Amino acid sequence: MQKLSLTQSLGQKLSPQQIQFIKLLQVPTAELETRVEEELEINPALEEGKEEKEPDENSETDLDEEPLQNEEVDIEDYLNEDDYAGYKMQGDGNYNKDEEDREIPIGSGTSLHEQLISQLGFLKLDERQTIIGRQLIGSIESDGYIRRELEAILNDLAFSQNIETSIEELEEILKKIQNFEPSGIAARNLKECLLLQLERKENQSSEVVLAYKIIDTNFNEFTKKHYDKIIKKLGIEDEEEFKEAVNVITKLNPKPGGTTDSLVKTHYLTPDFILVNNNGKMELSLNSRNAPELRISRSYSDMFQSYSKSDKKDKKLKETVSFVKQKLDAAKWFIDAIKQRQQTLLNTMNAIIEFQYDFFLDGDESKLKPMILKHIAEKINMDISTISRVANSKAIQTEFGIYPLKYFFSEGISTDSGEDVSSREVKLKLKEFIDNENKLKPLSDDKLEKLLNEEGYNIARRTVAKYREQLNIPVARLRKELK
Fold first, then answer.
1. Are residues 328 and 369 in the same domain?
2. pLDDT tens string 98-120
3. Helix axes 150-160, 127-138, angle to 10 degrees
C-alpha cells in the first residue's frame, strides 16, 4: 500500500550571485578581460567607465527603492529563480561542481612583446625611463635577442622620441629588462643569454657555478666542444662534476623568445598581483587588468523607472519591465562580483605574504614555511575551497620573478628539534645528496632516508621516493654510470 508523507530537511543551495562570484574568482587575469567583454556584449545595462555618483535618497531614479513593490505588479510576479538561467554566467545557471573545481591553467596567450611591456610597468619607472624601456623591448627579435647596437637605439631615441640618453643609462635599463620572464630574454648574444639563465637558477649548486664559469671564461672552446682544453684551463679534477655542468648548460634555452615558425604558441605567465618591497614593507597591488571600470547604464535605469510608473496591467509592458529589471540586476550583480573578487584576491594574497614574509624579503626558497590552504583560510576566515580557487590559477610578480601562488603551499616535515620545515627544503637537501653521490654507486631510497634522518628530518622511505619522483629523478639503478 502506497503512502504519502512530508519530510523536512535542511540543504544548502548556491544563489545565482554566489555562482557568479565563484566563476569569476577562479578566472585568471589573462582571461578576465574576455569575460568582461562577453558580459558587456550580452547586457546592454552594463557599461564601461567609472561609477557615477549615487543619486540622493529621494531621487526617483534610485533603483534600491524598488517602486514596483507598492504597485499592482510585484517583482515576484515576473522574476523568479528560473529566469536566471537566461543570464549568461559562464555556465548559464547550470551549476556543475566538477566543472567549477577543475584546474585552470595559468598561462595566457599574450605575445612576447605584450608580456614584456606588462612587466615593464612593474618597475615603477618614470615616464622618460619607460619610453627608453619600451624602445629596448621594441628592439627584441622574435627569438628573444636584441641584436641592434645600443648606439643605434640611442640614436633612435634622440630622433624619434626626442630623448637624449647615454649608453650607460641604456645598459642600466636593459639589465632590468633582462630580469624579466622568460629567463634569458633581451640578451645581445648567445653567451649573455646562457649566463643570464644560469644567474637565475634558484639552486646555485656546484655544477651550476661551474657551468657559469665555463661559459663566462671558455665560451668559444665550449661551442667547439674542446672539453679537454676547458678541463685543463680551469684545473678541473672531478670529470663527473664537469659532465654535470655541461649537462646543465645543454638544458638551457638558446631561444628564450621562441620562434615565429613554431607550431606551438608560447604561453607566458601573466601575474595577478604586483609586490614591491619598500625597505621591508610589502606593498601589494592588483594587476590593473583585474580592476575593470564598470557601471550601470543610466539610460537603462531611467527606462526602468519610467516603465515602473506606467500601467502594470498591460501584459507586454509587464514583459518589458521584467526584461529591463533582469538586465539591471544582472549588471549590478556582475559589478559587485568583480569588486568582491578583487577584495578576496587581495585578502588572500596579503595573508600569504604575511605567512611567508621571510621568503618575500629576499626570495630565498629555504625560508618558505610549511603552508596549506587551511592556514590561509583560518587567517582570513574564509572557506578552504575559496582559497583553493584563488591559489589554483593566480600568480604574483615579485622583484625576483613571477611565481604561481601554488608555489607557496607545501606540506610540512617535522625535525628532531620539534620544528616544522617545508617539504621544499627537504627536496633541496634530497637533490643535494643525489647531486653529490658517487654515480658508480648511486644512493638507494633507503640510504637517502637514513641520510635525511641523520640531518634531523623525520621522513619515511616512501616519502623519499615520492619527493624523488616529483623532482623527476630516476631510481638508483637508472642513475648508475659505467666507468
1. yes
2. 444 444 444 444 578 888 888 88
3. 130
> Is 224 exposed, middle or buried (CB count within 10 Å of its CB: 0-12, 13-18, 19+)?
exposed
* CA–CA distance, 203 with 191 (Å, rounded to integer): 20
**Would you place residue 197 in the very low, low, confident or very high pLDDT band (cuts 50, 70, 90)?**
very high
Full residue range of the structural domain in which residue 471 is found: 412-479
Residues 158 and 202 grouped into a single domain: no
The pLDDT tens digits for 119-172 are 888 787 888 999 999 999 988 988 889 988 998 898 888 887 888 889 999 999
Tell me, yes or no, whether 372 and 295 share the same domain.
Answer: yes
pLDDT tens for 357-386 read 988 988 877 788 888 888 899 999 988 888
Residue 273 near residue 349, CB atoms below 8 Å: yes
Residue that finishes a domain, picked among 152, 187, 222: 187
Give the tens place of pLDDT for each residue, 445-470. Answer: 888 888 888 877 778 888 888 888 87
pTM: 0.50
Count, residues in the chain: 483
